């Protein structure tokens, strides 16, 4: 009787070694370890074993059963570990689920920024950059913003909390991209035309139209004989290229320390197809103040220039009908997918 069990074990093991895939393995499991399999049958056969041999027989059947179960697990692991269909309730024929929600794309602010740069590039403007961690020298002093000017109030700026270094201007997160005007004028010889898109920071209370971080695009053109008419025609060209051929531009007298004369500019644009076009305030501009040119060692008798700066969020919100600036930073996919 015990020999029959040895035979069963040997036969089962060679059949197991021959099972080469998950299907064959499952066949084997059913034939040997299954509910009507050969191991069960051998166990049932204990009733025909003479009484005095029953304990030895029973022990041997249990040992064969355990040894085959272990051999099965080992073979299963060898063949890739996956439980055959049916065992773990996995239907390997079921089509996979799609987890991706489609290809990603760039954020609307990045796309608008690139579009703006592209429009100005067609008018001969190159891209310039400057650091976001700036010093007070570039954010204020050389832009003709005196120490007592309210714009320098620590309440309105993100100054860096660090010990004052001897002879070094205090550092801050830039509050305007006008800093890049200074960086360009310090390092380049006119004539040039540049635009500088980038992030700016102000400790404003966040609401539908304010954010403590937003983007501006700055423009600066320095040449001989540049006039306010060049500024206005550049802005008009820009407005038509970005908002459409019917866009209009309006300049309103204003004041900025770094331009003289200065103006705010509005554009008449159609925010929604079902609404009439209306005037939207977009930014500041003007003729570069001679004091700013001098601070950068550019002779104001020879060179003149214009500058402008506007908020990129506002341009994006205007063109795409976005009612709240916070939507641009929340990264809610339901919003982003619409743009
Ligand atoms: N820097 C100004 C601001 O953040 C905007 C601005 C006004 C930029 C006039 C200019 C300019 O270049 O000429 O409010």
How is the secondary structure organized here?
Layout: H1 2-18, H2 22-32, H3 38-44, H4 54-78, H5 108-122, E1 126-127, E2 133-135, H6 136-139, E3 171-173, H7 178-187, E4 192-201, E5 213-223, H8 228-243, E6 248-256, E7 259-269, E8 278-288, H9 290-295, E9 304-311, H10 312-320, H11 327-330, H12 333-336
Parallel strand pairs: 1-4
Antiparallel strand pairs: 2-3, 4-5, 5-9, 6-7, 7-8, 8-9
The chain binds 3,4-dihydroxyphenylalanine.
Residues 176, 178, 218, 256, 259, 283-286, 307-309 line the site of 3,4-dihydroxyphenylalanine.
Task: Describe, in plain words, how this protein is organized in 3D.
The chain is of the alpha+beta class. It has 2 domains: 2-78, no CATH class; 108-336, BirA Bifunctional Protein, domain 2 (2-Layer Sandwich). Helix content is 38%, strand content 20%. The protein has 12 helices and 9 strands. The chain has helices at 2-18, 22-32, 38-44, 54-78, 108-122, 136-139, 178-187, 228-243, 290-295, 312-320, 327-330, 333-336; strands spanning 126-127, 133-135, 171-173, 192-201, 213-223, 248-256, 259-269, 278-288, 304-311. It has a 7-stranded mixed sheet with strand order 1-4-5-9-8-7-6, sandwiched between helices. A two-stranded antiparallel ribbon has the order 2-3. Strand 6 and strand 7 (259-269) form a beta hairpin. The protein is elongated, with a radius of gyration of 39 Å. Bound molecules: 3,4-dihydroxyphenylalanine.
């Amino acid at each position: 009787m015990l020999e029959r069990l040895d035979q069963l074990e040997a036969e089962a093991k060679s059949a197991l070694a021959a099972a080469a895939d998950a299907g064959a393995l499952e066949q084997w499991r059913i034939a040997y370890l299954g509910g009507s399999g050969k191991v069960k049958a051998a166990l049932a056969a204990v009733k025909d074993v003479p009484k005095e041999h029953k304990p030895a027989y029973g022990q041997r059947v249990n040992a064969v059963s355990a040894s085959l179960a272990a051999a099965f697990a080992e073979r299963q692991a060898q063949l890739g570990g996956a439980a055959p269909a049916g065992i773990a309730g996995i239907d390997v024929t079921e089509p996979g689920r799609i987890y991706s929600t489609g290809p990603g794309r760039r954020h609307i602010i990045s796309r608008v920024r690139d579009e703006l740069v592209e429009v100005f590039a067609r008018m001969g403007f190159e891209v310039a950059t400057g650091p976001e961690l700036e010093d007070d020298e570039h954010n204020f002093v050389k832009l003709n913003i005196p120490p007592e000017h309210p714009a320098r109030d620590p309440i309105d700026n993100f100054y860096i909390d660090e010990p004052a270094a001897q002879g070094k201007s205090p550092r801050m997160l830039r509050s305007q991209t006008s800093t890049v005007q200074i960086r360009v004028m310090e390092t380049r010889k006119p004539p040039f035309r540049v635009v500088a898109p980038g992030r700016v920071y102000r400790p404003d209370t966040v609401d539908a139209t304010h954010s403590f971080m937003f983007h501006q695009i700055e423009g600066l053109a320095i040449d001989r004989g540049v006039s306010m008419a060049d500024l206005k025609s550049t802005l008009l060209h820009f407005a038509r290229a970005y908002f459409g051929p019917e866009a209009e531009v309006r300049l309103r007298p204003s004041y900025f320390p770094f331009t003289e004369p200065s103006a705010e500019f509005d554009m008449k644009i159609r925010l929604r197809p079902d609404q009439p076009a209306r005037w939207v305030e977009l930014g500041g501009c003007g003729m570069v103040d001679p004091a700013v040119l001098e601070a950068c060692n550019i002779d104001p008798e020879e060179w003149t220039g214009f500058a402008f700066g506007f908020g990129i969020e506002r341009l994006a919100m205007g063109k795409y009908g976005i009612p709240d600036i916070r939507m641009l930073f929340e990264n809610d996919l339901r919003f982003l997918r619409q743009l």
